[in-house]
Amino acid sequence: MCPKGDINPLLKVGVIFDLDQTLIDSVMALQDRQSRNWNSVYSKIPQFKVFDGIEKILRFLNTRNIPVCIVTSSPRSYCEKVLSSLGIKVCFSICYHDSKNHKPHPEPILIAKNKLINEY
Q1: Residue 105 backbone dihedrals phi, psi, to 5 degrees
Q2: Residues of 61-70 as b/e, b for ≥16 C-beta within 10 angstroms?
Q3: Domain residues of the chain, as ranges?
């Protein structure tokens, strides 16, 4: 799901998604996430669901060699556990500790955009 060089170099394309409440329904862990009770959050991950239509969108992007990444305000360990548990494959993730400023500041999205442009 991480194509390199298969796309017209004049047409740089990639898709950036948020994780929680965009790709997946994790609302059941919202309060625990806000209070940073990560052990409780991790125990709830097997109950998370991918929103309807998301797998179809990800397959569509994959078949067209369009790289996909995640930008999330959550720590990397959480992001990786969620993606693994739900079988979601992305090229890379930009997580909480990857930027000085955090969403809604544009810095994490700009980091992802630059990585898509320079590496995919």
Answers
A1: -60, 145
A2: beeeebbbbb
A3: 15-119
62 vs 56: CA distance, rounded Å? 10
Could you tell me if 48 and 24 are in contact, meaning their C-beta atoms sit under 8 angstroms apart?
Answer: yes
Residues 54-81: pLDDT tens digits? 999 999 999 999 999 999 999 999 999 9
Q: Judge: domain 15-119, CATH 3.40.50.1000.
A: yes
Asked whether 96 and 75 are in contact (CB, 8 A), the reply is yes
Q: What is the pTM of this model?
A: 0.89
Sign of CA dihedral 86, 94, 15, 120: negative
